[in-house]
């Protein structure tokens, strides 16, 4: 777990100086009028962080965000958008995950007095529909006091009825933040370039950073750490794989992608992860060897949205890459199963694996909301 979050906040005790542990509260004191109830009320499946006790005063310094476009190849303080995980350094990623853990703990207690998004609005652009992305963003933003506006494929027709750069500049004048789930990766880059407010990548055909941040939070909760974990992805070398590779270029992992020949992830992204010299990266077409000793076995649909016309072809090519009970046995008794959902049970994964005790797909889905809340808190300077 990352160290306690201190960026932009200072903590002192009336009696003596005190430091927060890695699982302590970081800025709730600004919003809470009384100490929260016992943490024992929170969910047992993912133990909440300890909340700071009475007697502390937390002050917040506002931080201005640079509204200029920043290339994804550069890491710097004040980065406006969340488009690629690798845009951020390890310390920042771990701080965001720490925020996610702590805000999740507060929500689990049922306390709704923490309202950092009060008075803020978010536009959610969907050219690619999704249950989890819409509900997790909308519910999460609302729980922290904000208001989200859903813009479906027919509401904007971005790039057809109206140019992306115009959409970005107009919505920036109405909203405090923009989230977009789109097909073409260039669309999210253009939104980030022309918007004067933060832009969050809700998914593109190239990557899915919010999902992998939720996955990282889930991994920390269940195996106790992110660094050094062995994550074995079995299936298509798609946008999920690209985001894991980008995370592995920042945080040390052992990441393995087991995929059929011809369905490997983007070569430049694999090269980026390997050249970072931080993580061990393996690309193989042997899932049985790949899963041995895994902390997590991860799967996704073989034909993503926009590829359904290839479903029959892919079904044939992906024979031997289904995550079933036998493959999980090879992984070992301590291996968890993860899936970003929706799952096609009986195709890329069996029903028995999804419903097994070591399946953490539903805590993983829940953590989309908490990870995204933390991402937006970071972008707003909290």
TrEMBL record:
Q: Does the keyword Transferase apply?
A: yes
Domain Aspartate/ornithine carbamoyltransferase Asp/Orn-binding, chain residue ranges per copy? 227-378
Keywords attached to this Swiss-Prot or TrEMBL record, sorted alphabetically, are: Transferase
- The top EC class is transferase
Q: Which residues form the Aspartate/ornithine carbamoyltransferase carbamoyl-P binding domain?
A: 80-221
Q: Which Gene3D superfamilies match?
A: Aspartate/ornithine carbamoyltransferase
Enzyme Commission number, as recorded: 2.1.3.3
In terms of domain of life, where is this protein from?
A: Eukaryota
Catalytic reaction list: carbamoyl phosphate + L-ornithine = L-citrulline + phosphate + H(+)
* PANTHER family in the record: ORNITHINE CARBAMOYLTRANSFERASE, MITOCHONDRIAL, ORNITHINE TRANSCARBAMYLASE, MITOCHONDRIAL
What the record says about family reads: Belongs to the aspartate/ornithine carbamoyltransferase superfamily. OTCase family.
Q: What is this protein called?
A: ornithine carbamoyltransferase
